[in-house]
Specification:
60s Ribosomal Protein L30, Chain: A; alpha+beta; globular
Length: 132
């Protein structure tokens, strides 16, 4: 396990291939801070088609992959921030989001409406998780 004061900037070929100006995650001690994640096709700057629910599913799958790549998992997520292009899509997003977490272990969460997201995404989610 990392020492409490260790700091690592983490990325992967999946994200470096897209020349993004940020790390996909930063590990500080046993905490993992993910950058905002959208419903893009892995390794491409292209969103999945199908609207808010398809984008939410792909976003959560992308988050799951990033967490696992860096020694964590969805069961270790302690906080999420959900950003929506249209707050009217809250319920539709929530239907998919909730399928990724145990009802007895829901992460703390905040949400906000945004005037625009990368690639014109409908949803962007960032998470904080513990590391095994």
């Amino acid at each position: 396990m990392s020492s409490p004061d260790s700091l690592e900037y983490l990325t992967s070929p999946e994200t470096t291939s897209m020349n993004l100006p940020f790390s996909e995650a930063v590990r500080v001690g046993n905490m993992l801070y993910l950058s905002g994640v959208i419903g893009n096709i892995p390794g491409k700057k292209q969103l999945v088609s199908g609207g808010i629910q398809a984008e939410t599913k792909q976003t959560m799958e992308n988050i799951k992959r990033i967490l696992e790549r860096h020694g964590s998992s969805l069961s270790q997520v302690v906080k999420c921030k959900v950003m929506l292009a249209d707050m009217k899509e809250w319920s539709a997003m929530n239907e998919v989001y909730l399928t990724y977490f145990s009802a007895s272990r829901l992460p703390a969460r905040s949400a906000l409406g945004a005037s625009g997201l990368a690639l014109n995404a409908r949803v962007e989610i960032e998470c904080i998780a513990t590391v095994k």
